[in-house]
Amino acid sequence: AGLGEFRIRDLNDEINKLLREKGHWEFRIKELGGPDYARIGPKMLDHEGKEVPGNRGYKYFGAAKDLPGVRELFEKEPVPPPRKTRAELMKSIDAEYYGYRDEEDGILEPLEQEHEKKVIAEAVEKWKMEREARLARGEEEEEEDIYAVSDDESDEEGGKEKGEEGQQKFIAHVPVPSQQEIEEALVRRKKMELLQKYASETLMAQSQEAKTLLGL
Q: Domain containing 58: what range?
């Protein structure tokens, strides 16, 4: 370690060059039919008995392992924190998570009010500019009557129109029975109820048969 950073790097580069040359010779021996020393040869170990660390075929020996930028290559990455389960995540979810308490902090409402005033001021200014432009062109400005009711508007049951004295008169679009027709319908209904209550089945059958013959 006392040789200095540059001397250590040079020595480490020289060792790696010799290792590459050794690898070429081992490959040539295999081509000539000899043993494959790259496969059966012993592993390179340091003085502690650990395999020599390397990166992409380049090995680091001795003090070269502690050089700046080299130590970080072989440091183990920290273990990632354990992931929370769905049940643990749901424990921290409350109304505030969904934004229901955003207005309770006293910050959002003043911002919204300020923005609302700004938008209203811009809309009023735009309306004034358009109004002045219409007046400059000589166009007469017609005030819109927001309370005016068009002729097409009507109720669900029927339309309305005003009479001569200013009173509203309702016009029905469906036939409305008179009082006499209502009384006659009630009498017929009462007769049918009495017949069904007191008349015998034979009499009812005869009455129905008579109605059929008469075409009623």
A: 5-74
